[in-house]
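Write out the 3D structure for:
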Amino acid sequence: MFSIKKIISTPQQHNNDTTVSTHLYQDDDEPYLAEAVDSSPLSETKEVKLIFEGEDRDPTVLVPGLFWVDKIEFTLPGGKQWVISDYWNDVKDIVEDPFISSPSSLSSVHDRAVELYYQIKGGQVDYGLHHSYQFCHNQFGATYEGFMPSWSPDNPVVLIGKGYGATTALYLQHLLSTNYFGQHTSGRMVKAIICLSAPHRGSTLPYWFGLEAGSKCVVNPLSLLQLLLSFVHIVCYFACLDRLFSFQLNDKWNLSSREEGGEQSIWSAISARSKFAYFGDNFLVDWSVEGARMRYAGEERDKHFLDPDCVYINYITTGSSWRSKITGHYLPRLTWRNFPTAIISTILGQYKMTPDVEQHVLRTSSSTFWENDGTLSVYSQEPPPHQRVQMNIVITEKLFDPVEHELTPGAWYNVYVEDRSNTILFDDEPFLTTLPFVEQILEINTVKRFGEYLSKNVDSFEYYYIFLVEFLERQLCYLRSIKSNGNSVAVIKDIEYVTNSYLMNANLDRVERRTSDKAGEEWCERINTIELMNSPSKMLCYISNIQKLKLYSSAEGSSQDLASFKDDFSTNGLIPSGPMFIKARHKMTTEDYRSSMQQ
C-alpha cells in the first residue's frame, strides 16, 4: 500500500500547499483564492458506465502520441510472426474492434485535432481559413471515408489517448464544444476521454533539447532539436523516405523537393528552413510549458471547460524515478520498463533552468518538474488548474480501476499508477519479448534462473544502486566545497558527519508515495463493499479472517486494541489491504469455497 504523501483533492488546496512548500514563485496559472474554481460537489449525480465489449459497446477511437508507429511485424519462414512494435497491443486486448486514428505525429494539437475529427466523421480535412492564413500552410488536407459518418451527440465516441494523443483528444472536444467545424457540433459527441501520461501542463524536455525559453518556437541552431528538425525535413524531401516514415507533413507544408512540386531545396531541407519550423504550428510549441499554458491560461473563449456529460479519466504514471537525498535530483529506478527511457528520466530529473526563466516561463521552480515517469514529469500530467477534479485514486489492484465502474461525468478522475499491471487498459508488456530470438533466449534454463534471481533481489540491487549514486554525489559536493571554500579541514569534518549519519539510516525509500484523497478512499471502500456483498466466497473469506483476528487479539490480551493488529495481519495475509479477490468472469460459489478450504 502507498502511504506518507497526501494527494491534494481540490485546485485551491493544491495551490496553497505547493506554493509554500515547493514553489519559488507564485504560479500564475493556478487560480488565486478569489478566482478559484468552485470545488463543491457536482450538481449532476447521474453516473455513466463505459462498455468496451459486446453488441452495445461504445465506439472507441484510439489517439496516438508523438513518433508513434501502429504495428511493425514480419512473417518468418514457417508462418511465425515477428512483432517488432505494437503501439496499441495493451488496449486492443480489452477494447473490441477499436478505431485506430492516424493524425500527423509532429503537427500541432490544433491540426491533429482537426485531422482526428475528419478521420472519425469523414470528408476532406479543413484546418480553417483563419488558422491556415495565420500559420502559412495549406487550408485543405487529405480526404477520409470516416470511421463513423453518423457521429453525433446521440451517437458519441470514447477517445483513448496516450501522451500527446491525450491532449489532442481534449482539444478536439474543445473544438466540438465551440462549433469550430460549423456543423452544429457539441462536446456531448464525446462520451469519455481516457488519458495516459498526458502532458496537460507541458514538459521542460523541449527546452533541454534546444527550444529557446520564452520564444515559443525559436530553436537553437546548435542543438539536438535542430538535428531532429533537419532529419524530419530530409525525410519529407525524399519521397521514398516520406512513404517509409509517414510524417504526413507534405500535404500541408509542401516540404517535398521542388522537382516533385514542393517548396524545399536540398539545402533548406538540411538546415530545416521552412514555415513548419519557423511559424510555431508544430509539436514543439504544444509540447512545451508555454504552449500548454496557452491552452488553459488564455482568454475564456480559448479555454477548454469540461463537458458535464463526459467522463474524464487521467492516468498519472509515477514510481519510475527516485529522489536523491544529497542533491534532490530524481534518477531512474532499476526496473526493466524504465531502461529504454533511463537517459530521458535522468535529464528530466535534474534539468535546472535559470531563475529568470523559472519566473517568467515556468512560473514555478524547476524542481517541480523533476519527478517523472521516464518520459514525462508527474507535475506535467496534472490536469489544468481551471478544470474540476472529482477525486484522486491510487490504485494497487485492478478492481479499483475506474474504467470498469459507473462514473460521474463532468470532472477528472485522477488515477495515480505506479505499476501498469494494476490497470485494465494499459497493462502492456515489453514488445521485445515477442521477438522469436529473444523468446528462445528466455527459454534457456540458465537465463530463466538468472531472471528469477534478479526479480527476487531487485530491492537489494536498488539499495546498492542508490547508495553508490548518492556516494558519488556526496564526493562531488565535497570537491566543490573544497574548491569554493578553501577550508579543507572544516569541510572534511562536515562531510564525515553527514556520511556517518547517512550510513546509520537503513531506510533508503526515495520514491514518492501517494495515497488517495478522502473522496477516492470513500469510492474505493464502496467498490470493495459492493464486491464483498456480490460474492459469497469473498464474504466467507472476510468473516473467516475477522474471526482469526479476534482469536489472535484475545490470545495476546484484552489490553491491546484490535486495530493495532490490523497492519500485522495485513502483512501475513489474514486481512488483505485491498479486495480479497480480483473481479473475474466466473465467481466462486459457496460450495467451491468450502471444498477448497477442506483441501
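Residues 1-44, 488-507, 562-587 have pLDDT under 50 and may be disordered.
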